[in-house]
Design goal:
By secondary structure, the chain is mainly β. Helix content is 8%, strand content 43%. The strands form 5 sheets. A 9-stranded mixed β-sheet has the order 2-1-24-23-22-21-19-20-18. Strands 3, 4, 5, 25, 26 and 27 form a 6-stranded antiparallel β-sheet that branches. The protein has a 4-stranded antiparallel β-sheet with strand order 6-7-8-9.
């Protein structure tokens, strides 16, 4: 089996994968599972530059880039599918420092926005009525523009919640930090939204100290009708606590994860420890679950999962992808049993991060990382119709 060519698909009842990190465990020979080798034509690589994304042959051949703190680096910081519609094709990704990327089948569009993205950290994609919303802020540790006098003197600089208008292909603010708190020089550095209430962590910088505060709020008018001009009058804000906020970000026990996820990863979750961030397609904020295996000597993997109406999928940082259900316009895979796909192995220092599936096209983000810094980044596009549906055993 030629593991250096394309992708390997594994159809397994047990899904007994043991490959992680840069270890070269031959999973297929150990499990003796049937497999299909995918040709190079079924996938393609892309990397980001300062202005756009460009096609490349492999991630290691992307132009060299300096390591930058993740808050300031060009990278896919958050991604998710919209709710299933008649075609199930829409998906989005927030590209930090660039804009919003839209996916529809094999079509990719980047709505670049230098006003909102050029000097802010963007991420935390969620959906309201199937409309993408996300947050932006300036990092007090790494962002040089935070010391510019105009930033301190202009409350409109302190943006927070942003809506992406898919029809117009533009992003515009819904709520600014100064709509939520009176203290100047404040940034909403993170949030959690349960579909009704918002809880925010706010960092306020003074000449003497840095102050953290926590609030809970909800709009009294439709959120998508708000703007920084009228939001203050249409929002109810109450004080919250560090404990309440941290509770929304805490790692939950894997036993409490959605049953759909646990069924898809059954047996695999007994072999590899991992942390998995679970999203609902078209939903509110995600939650993270930790699968702890006290006796395991395997490296703990980071992973992402999307639960859509007709399918579920999970991508691990080493390139192991699980799918079950039916992609749009296709039949149910293996009578509802999971399918595992091994994406192309990345070079040392590179990992897979987030992903979406638009129609039958997979988009998997990759990046070159070192501790809290990121260098090169981009995404892999895979034709799942050719890779999966046309080659099932």
């Amino acid at each position: 089996m030629k593991r250096k060519i394309g992708l390997t698909i594994v159809f397994a009842v047990g899904l007994l994968f043991c490959s992680c990190g840069n270890k070269k465990t031959d999973v297929l020979s150990e499990s003796q599972l049937p497999s299909v080798t995918v040709q190079k034509a079924d996938h393609s690589w892309y990397c980001f530059n300062e202005h756009d994304f460009v096609k490349i042959s492999k991630p290691q051949y992307a132009p060299a880039n300096v390591l930058t703190p993740w808050t300031e680096a060009v990278r896919i910081s958050s991604a998710n599918n919209a709710c299933d519609d008649e075609t199930g094709n829409k998906a989005y990704a927030i590209v930090n420092r660039l804009g919003v990327m839209s996916f529809e089948n094999d079509k990719v569009t980047l709505a670049r926005d230098v006003t909102l993205f050029a000097d802010r950290t963007a991420g935390d994609l969620a959906f309201l009525n199937n409309t993408p919303i996300f947050s932006v802020f300036k990092s007090a540790f790494f962002n040089d523009t935070i010391s510019v006098p105009s930033y301190k003197n202009d409350g409109t600089q302190h943006l927070f919640l942003v809506q992406f208008d898919d029809a117009a292909n533009i992003s515009y603010p819904l709520v600014n930090c100064n709509n939520l708190i009176e203290s100047p020089n404040s940034e909403v550095t993170d949030y959690y939204w349960d579909g009704e209430n918002w809880i925010c962590s706010i960092k306020t910088i003074t000449d003497a100290q840095v102050i953290f505060s926590y609030i809970k709020w909800y709009p009294t008018a439709p959120l998508l009708s708000l703007s920084p001009v009228n939001a203050s009058e249409k929002i109810i804000v109450t004080e919250s606590s560090k404990e309440a906020y941290r509770g929304t970000k805490a790692l939950l026990a894997y036993k409490d994860a959605p049953n759909r996820l646990k069924n898809m990863l059954k047996n695999f979750d007994q072999k590899i420890p991992f942390i998995i961030e679970v999203k609902s397609a078209g939903g509110s904020s995600s939650r993270k679950y930790e699968n702890i295996l006290p006796d395991s000597k395997e490296q703990k993997l980071n992973s992402m999962a999307i639960l859509s109406e007709s399918w579920s999928a999970a991508l691990f940082e080493d390139g192991t992808l699980f799918i079950e259900g039916a992609l749009p316009g296709k039949h149910i895979l293996r009578n509802g049993k999971p399918v595992a796909i091994r994406l192309p192995r990345l070079p040392a220092g590179f990992v897979y991060s987030d992903f979406v599936i638009s129609g039958t096209t997979l988009y998997a983000a990759w990046e070159e990382t070192s501790f809290y810094k990121t260098s090169r980044s981009g995404f892999l596009r895979v034709d799942l119709d050719e890779t999966l549906y046309k080659r099932m055993l």
